[in-house]
Amino acid sequence: MHNSNQNALKVYPDADILIQIKKLPELYASDMNTMLRVVTKTLAENLHVSRVSIWQFNKNEKNISCLDCYELETKEHSKGEIIDEKSHPKYFSALYKENIIQAEDVQNHDFVEELLQDYFKKHNIIALLDVPFFLEGNLGGVICFEQKHQTRIWRNDEIIFTHCLGSVLSLTYEKMKWKEYDTRLKNFNHQLHNFNRDLLEKKKTIENQQKEIMVQQGEIISQNEELRQQQEELEAQTNQLYHQNQELERLYQLLHLKNHQLEDLNIYLENQVKQRTQELIQSNVELIEQNHQLEQFAFITAHNLRAPVARIVGLVTLLDKSKIGEENDKVINYMISATYELDRVIKDLNQILDVRKGVREQKERVSLKETFERVLYGLRDNIKESYAEIKYDFFEVDIFQCLPVYLESILYNLISNAIKYHHKERNPLIECKSKRVDNSICIIIKDNGLGINLAKHQRKVFGLYQRFHDHVEGKGLGLHLIKSQVEALQGRIELDSQENIGSTFRVFLPL
User: Fold this and answer.
1) pLDDT tens for each residue of 142-166
2) What is the structure's pLDDT at 130?
3) Which of the pair, 345 or 278, is modelled with greater confidence?
4) In order of start, what are the domains of the chain with their CATH numbers?
5) Considering the chain, what percentage of its residues have pLDDT values greater than 90?
6) SS3 breakdown of the chain: % helix, strand, coil, rounded to 5?
7) Partners of residue 437 on adjacent β-strands
8) What are the CA-CA distances from residue 71 to residues 12, 24, 41, 146, 441 (Å)?
9) With contact defined as beta carbons under 8 Å apart, do 19 and 42 qualify?
10) How do residues 82-102 score in pLDDT, each as one tens digit?
11) pLDDT of residue 16
12) Cβ-count burial 152-177 (b if 16+ within 10 Å, e if not)
């Protein structure tokens, strides 16, 4: 890669390059693709330009399409990209007026400002020199010289050279067209010659056949009289058969119509059966999942409520109503504590139920970056106290449809867990980014914390009230809540983790 200063200081032998291009045998070949590939590669290598491409103007479609583009860095050719006039009127207006578009920095040029987002940003283009060429007085296309990654000052001799190159390409293009027309004309003349030869042979054959026919005609005349008598008899039979055929045809049409109606009905019924079968399969899957969740929920409810209720019942039996003193005060305090514990369990279970009900809410257009920064602001004290370093990059995918409350809750729980379960011998480092995977957004959150022994706890990681680090205060609800919210959004969550090294969570949500 050459920087802009090197390009400004180097003096290119432009005339020699032009002569070299004109002497290329591929320039006069009948294969247009071969000629274009050689020209773009030669220009890029000699002028040290990141990209050189040749575009054809399509008058009817009002666009230009790339016939060949050569990348100097990768040494690869590509083609097929299209730029339309409707979305880029200023650029096309400049081309129609035979303007050479010279941009040292595409960010500061009126003619190409419409290409910033959908073309320059895609290819990392910083500077360009576009030269239109014309065929028979009309716009034929564009030769594009594009510099990536840095600005480039286009010298006057380079601009004059590209203008001359446009003229050479116009003449070459027209010459190839005329050569193509000449080849087609020769082929047509050859086909016409063959056709005339075949026609003469067929004429001779027909003349010979006519002579034979004249001989046979005398015999036929004598036979015609005999045939006339037979024909009268056949006509009577034919009339009778005609009426019978008319009736059969009517019956056949009616039968064909009925068969067609039956086929349509069968197709409709088959589609209905398939649709109903698919709906039943989906319903059964949902019912099985709901039954599984209800069984798990019932088990959790019975298991988690049994302990605090049993303690309350036991404390009530210990309470001596006839005595008021320190002994009963302790019992009452224990009852209050058990009641708070029961209330906490009920609130946790209600929070999970709220996740399953919340999926009915309408999804909104949300910004992942804004939501993430809002979560960081809410955790600012935790981040400061733990000396956590948080890096994030949501450039690839930022905006998508989601429930804002769920997205914020998922990010909050993952980041707060990464801070809470950090390794005591190092400061927390949390890295977050997004990428597109098929039709989903993948949110990746990686930390250098305590990690989880997946060989031991793989099946329990996202379970309710599952804890893996007892020295840190917690309820074991966070990961289960995250999984419930992700699945409510029709997504999935994956975990890679190594004990004492760190964890990587991947949240996949539909776009």
Assistant:
1) 999 999 989 999 888 888 887 787 7
2) 92
3) 278
4) 4-154 (3.30.450.40), 361-510 (3.30.565.10)
5) 37
6) 60, 20, 20
7) 440
8) 20, 20, 8, 10, 30
9) no
10) 999 999 999 999 999 888 899
11) 58
12) bebeeebbebbeebbeebbebbeebe
- Lookup: tokens for 69: 């583009």
Q: How far apart are CA 215 and CA 205, in angstroms?
A: 16
Q: Could you count the other beta carbons within 10 Å of the beta carbon of residue 370? A: 13
| Residue 140 contacts residue 133 (beta carbons within 8 Å) | yes
Q: What tokens does 461 get?
A: 């990681």
Element (H, E) at 425: none
In three-state form (DSSP H/G/I as H, E/B as E, the rest C), the secondary structure along 327-357 is HHHHHHHHHHHHHHHHHHHHHHHHHHHHHHH
**CB-CB neighbours of 364 under 10 Å:** 11
> What are 494's two structure tokens?
């994956």
Instruction: Give me the pLDDT at residue 8, please.
Output: 32
Q: 166-216: per-residue pLDDT in tens?
A: 777 776 766 666 666 667 777 877 888 888 888 888 888 888 888 888 888
Orientation of helix 14-22 relative to helix 32-47, angle to 10°: 160
- Quote the tokens at residue 44: 């890029």
**Per-residue model confidence (pLDDT) at position 125:** 95
Exposure string (b/e) for 22-43, b if CB count within 10 Å is 16 or more? eeeeebeeeebeebbbbbbbbb
Euclidean distance between CA atoms 166 and 141, whole angstroms: 9
